[in-house]
Write a structure and sequence with these properties.
10% strand; globular; two-stranded antiparallel sheet; 12 helices; mainly alpha; 248 residues
Length: 248
């Protein structure tokens, strides 16, 4: 709510306290596919928390959120498809996976209004970063029939770009280029994660995709004490990606 209300990433030091969530079970989350015990422990420590906001901060955030334009209800055909043809019944950080999708959708509607918020509602449908796949590849044509060509182009490459950004190679290469060189990009090609299909998109689609990725990262940033979390992978990726987009 705070991110949507303020339209930016915020360090809430002094406003919130994080405590371990005794009820968090990684085996019931989107991270269930992780096999490394160390990785599972680190992820559990990061996302298995409960946030306790000060009364003053909570009231301030609620007041700010109250003036943000409300996003429209999800399209019913999409909701039906997600509920009956896909598996989104897993936890995500401190809430359900649908809470995460709802946050991304609402933030996009409020702060990226020139582009479709439905992209971020469906950004994980063709593959989550932890290699959980809510939709089988055989249902790609059914998904295409429910969205526009532009929306599908964004949804289909989202899992790939997520992995490329997390891996660091693409991010490092883009960071070394000047704004002028970045503007010379004409197309971007990659394999789709779900079915390994080779796809090519225009530069406009690519830059929009990176803006969608930036919004998505907001939901993974540390809630507070950024100075103590400078080694956080999501915060580092967000910082570099934001600086790249500022150059374009």
């Amino acid at each position: 709510m705070a991110q949507i209300a303020r339209g930016k990433a915020s360090d809430h030091s002094g406003e919130v306290v994080l405590l371990p969530n005794a009820d968090f079970d990684i085996s019931k989350s989107i991270f269930e596919t992780l096999t490394s015990p160390l990785t599972r422990m680190l992820i559990s420590d990061k996302v298995g928390v409960v946030l306790f906001w000060s009364d003053k901060a909570e009231q301030k955030i609620r007041n700010e959120f109250s003036v943000v334009p409300r996003a429209p209800r999800f399209d019913q055909p999409l909701v039906d498809f997600m509920n009956t043809e896909c598996d989104f019944a897993v936890e995500h950080a401190d809430g359900s996976f649908m809470d995460h999708l709802k946050f991304c959708y609402e933030y996009s509607f409020a702060h990226f209004p020139e582009r479709s918020p439905r992209v971020l509602l469906l950004h994980s449908i063709m593959g989550v970063g932890s290699n959980f796949f809510p939709m089988h590849r055989s249902k790609v044509p059914a998904l295409q029939a429910l969205v526009t060509e532009y929306e599908f182009s964004q949804i289909s490459i989202f899992p790939t770009l997520l992995r490329l950004l997390q891996g660091g190679i693409l991010l490092d290469e883009l960071a070394t280029l000047s704004g002028a060189r970045l503007q010379e990009l004409e197309t971007f090609s990659c394999h789709r994660v779900l079915d390994n299909e080779w796809v090519t998109v225009s530069s406009d689609v690519f830059w929009d995709q990176l803006n969608y990725q930036l919004i998505h990262l907001l939901d993974f940033l540390p809630a507070a004490s950024w100075q103590r979390h400078m080694d956080d992978g999501f915060l580092a990726t967000f910082t570099v990606l934001h600086s790249i987009l500022e150059k374009t």
